[in-house]
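Obj.: predict assembly geometry.
Materials: sequence records (below).
Method: joint structure prediction, all chains together.
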Amino acid sequence: MTVATPLAFALDAPLFLLTLLVIPAGLYAIHAARARRLRSAIRMPATATLKAVVAGQPSHRRWLPIALLALTVALLSVALTRPEVTVSSPVSRSTVTLVIDSSGSMAADDVQPSRMDAVKSAAKQFVKGIPKQTRIGLVGFSDTPNVVQEPTTDRGVVQRGLDALQASGGTFTQDALDVALDAIRAEGDPSKNDGTRPPGAIVLLSDGTPQRGQDPLIPAQRAKQDHIPIYTVSLGTPQGTVTYSDGSVVEVPPNPELMRQIAQISDGESYSVADAGELKKIYESLGTRVASEAEQREITAGFAGGGLLTLALALGLGLRWRSRVA
Amino acid sequence: MSDLLIDPPGRQGPGRIGGHAVRALELALARRSDGVLPGEHRSAGLGSGTELSQLRPYVEGDDVRHLDPAASARTGEPHVRLHVPERTLTTWIALDVSASMAFGTTRRLKSDVAEGVVRVVSRLGVRRGGRVALLRWGADASATRVLPPKGGRPALGAVDRALAEGVAADRSIHTEDLAGALERLHRVARRPGLVVIASDLRDDSRWERSLSMLARQHRVIVAEVSDPREQALPDAGIVVMVDPENGDHVEVDTSSPRVREAFGRAEAERRADVAERLRRCRVQHLAVSTDGDWLRDLGRALR
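Observations (raw structure tokens):
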């Protein structure tokens, strides 16, 4: 999901709106010119007949050219102020934080070649696929959320961080999400973007059940307040097992229900796949969707062009209908 | 002299009316004026006159005071002597002095032409004991004036003084319209006579009824004064035209042939409509223009 960016309209130099005063001044000038012409009017006893003849002409021939001229002035005045609109476009200032479960359960090999390797290769594919300007952070977690990488545009660092992940320890999802949220918040650049944070998203990739005492739904609520969607991807099959070094075999089923709830609360989306290929596909689609930002675009040319068009219309119609400009 | 009237700029006067070249015309006019004198109009009742009509034998019912002693003695039979009943003709002149009369683009203003018509009619009117009265209307109501019927030089002097005062200033308010003037004339002109109206007939009032009532009692001649520029626009680009009477103004592009043609058509229709209304009122319509010989037109109409 992209962060909703309302279309906003702003003027870069609003003082130039004072040139709108040309309109009343022009209308006054036209009025004064009429009064002047009236002073030098020709006496004509047959004026009543003449008036009836002229009244047969449609009245818009009198006011339309003048209205178009006023519109021209208005459009050119607005063009002088260099108007900008805010549009949502896929650009630089977005941050995606990968939150990757590296707990012991990720060592299960129910996904080929193993859960951990599937995650790593898919994450690398994701990192490769998304726009260059998007900053990518990485949080690998097990017993503690160890921030492997602050958000950066350096892809090499992220790749190396992914390589360094080792599957061992517990699953402290809540703490990891908190750290990821804080990292995205820290990305905010108020001076450049009206105090709002650049759009960010979290991709949580985990096989599910967190450690006792961990409630990932709490950071999910926070993420919703901050408009940071959390995309969750659960992986693994119910048959997944981990063989510990002491020889004991433990069943590690995934918990897709919890992952779905996290995504739902934070306005993200949830995927439950046990296939590395599909994982890649999801990452790829995420890559194109999370990275969008409000961009201010100058639309002076449109106003100037519209002004020239109405000016040409006003002159043409005025000369054709009344043999004068105004 | 009323300050409600002005001497319009460009006033030329009606042109020469008298003089050597006009003497023949004077005679012609005199003859024509006979046509309007009452001898050819049956006047009401018998009257005493100076001109012998006939001597004829007395028949029962004749007034015995009309017995002619000489004829009765000569023939041995009673004869009565009858005279042509003679009436002095009263000529009522209704002169339009509205601001639109101060307009003219050729030889003279419309008011000059109207002045000439009034001068000639008043000179003819005072002949043979006739009397002339003048009703001046179209200006501010307080400048409206009725000169009562007078004869001889005093009448001509009064008419000339009234003419010299000029016409109404532009945008006079509370002006008397033609219908009002005709009603007033109908009230004061009790005896049958001649009514001459000199106006441009650019009047919105409904004057047909008053005029036809007037025409039932009097011989009425309406001299419609016009100017060629009122009937056709010249190609003069964009101009603002203003109505001298009510200040209405209109901006018009006279370089457009369509506008000029539409104006000419509308104005021709208006004049045709006026002529038709005059015809229905059974009055004599005389059109005089500022660019034509108004004197000849007037003479033809009086014939």
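Conclusions so far: The interface with chain A takes residues 100, 102-103, 110, 170, 200, 202, 204, 227, 229-231, 233, 237-245, 248-253, 255, 259, 262-263, 266-267, 270 of chain B (CB under 8 Å).
To do: check interface contacts against the pulldown list.
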